[in-house]
Amino acid sequence: MEATNEKVVVILLGLMVAIACCADAQTICNMTYADLMACKLAAMPPNPPPPTSVCCQGLSHADLKCFCKYKNSTILPSIGVDPKLAMQLPSKCKLPHPPTC
């Protein structure tokens, strides 16, 4: 199930780029643009800092099942996000397991 957590976070971070042009009041899967951006640094190589409380709080309120429909995103590497690091965010935030995609 941890692999599912990781896939969801990878998808979540990929959505940051998709909503960058419309940041005012937009949300995706119950996460604001600010929440998504708060997670970005924690998934950037080579030595990312721990996820911020804003990132973890955003993830905790997100509809993680909603992010499953974005699981094939290829945007992450193009914005400097390492998918492997992104996959570690749920455990670093101590989140419960999301639904299986």
From TrEMBL:
<keyword id="KW-0732">Signal</keyword>
<dbReference type="InterPro" id="IPR039265">
    <property type="entry name" value="DIR1-like"/>
</dbReference>
<dbReference type="InterPro" id="IPR036312">
    <property type="entry name" value="Bifun_inhib/LTP/seed_sf"/>
</dbReference>
<protein>
    <submittedName>
        <fullName>Lipid-transfer protein DIR1</fullName>
    </submittedName>
</protein>
<feature type="domain" description="Bifunctional inhibitor/plant lipid transfer protein/seed storage helical">
    <location>
        <begin position="29"/>
        <end position="101"/>
    </location>
</feature>
<dbReference type="InterPro" id="IPR016140">
    <property type="entry name" value="Bifunc_inhib/LTP/seed_store"/>
</dbReference>
<feature type="signal peptide">
    <location>
        <begin position="1"/>
        <end position="25"/>
    </location>
</feature>
<dbReference type="Pfam" id="PF14368">
    <property type="entry name" value="LTP_2"/>
</dbReference>
